[in-house]
Amino acid sequence: MNKKNIPLVILKAFESFVDLKGELFLVVPPENHLLKIVDNDENSDFYFIASQYEKQQGGSYKLLIDLKPKSASVPSNHQIWIDTKDLETYFKNWLDLLKEYNSVKSFFDDPILKSFAKEYYAEFEILDDEEADINPLSIRQIMLLDQHLEYIEENIEKYETDNNRNQIQEIKNDVKLIRENLTNQPKKWVVKHLSKTWAKLTKQGTKFLKDFLSEARKQVVVEGIKFILNHGTDLLPK
């Protein structure tokens, strides 16, 4: 789609979304839509889509929005025509629902996994950086982390059994997602997802800890992302 085939007023309505980043969502290529944002939880099918625009008789424009969930009481999708000026309001409402889903306690949560993820997440001091949810990792950090993730991706299958096949595939999917987004997501997004992946590895047992998350290897990643890199990259698995 060529932007010069789209009315300027429509382009301006989406301008604030071009560089939009956050922990709970991903702005993905819109394909045949104008805007496509998805829940970054791999087990969720929540989304926020602006699919088309339409000029009104008075010269103003409306946007067709398709979103899921519709509300706190209706988890299914909903389509509605809105004024362009209301786009950010509708997105904020959708994002507020995502935040509530992520914060609410339920019997469907895994407290052990959450505890491990919280412990790993706390090791990264960059989260105190006010711009950690805006700025990406440095090139050196990206290369360091990608090497670590590549090692996991290439070696985790040797631990696969009939009992953990689904969990191993989920970890592989997580690693793939992180690697694909190392250069286009902010520090906080990367750290959040890395912490969750480390938690899933930890829950699989001590042999996973010894191979993928020995203290030396883990600290290289933590220190590297914290800009210190005191240990050097030689501690990473070859």
Commentary on this structure:
The structure is a single chain. The chain is of the alpha+beta class and 238 residues long. Helix content is 44%, strand content 13%. It has 8 helices and 5 strands. The chain has helices at 8-14, 87-103, 111-121, 139-155, 165-181, 187-203, 206-212, 215-225; strands at residues 25-27, 35-39, 47-55, 61-68, 78-83. It has a 5-stranded antiparallel beta sheet, covered by helices on one side. Helix 4 (139-155) packs antiparallel against helix 5 and helix 5 runs antiparallel to helix 6. The longest helix is centred in the middle third of the chain and has 17 residues, at 87-103.
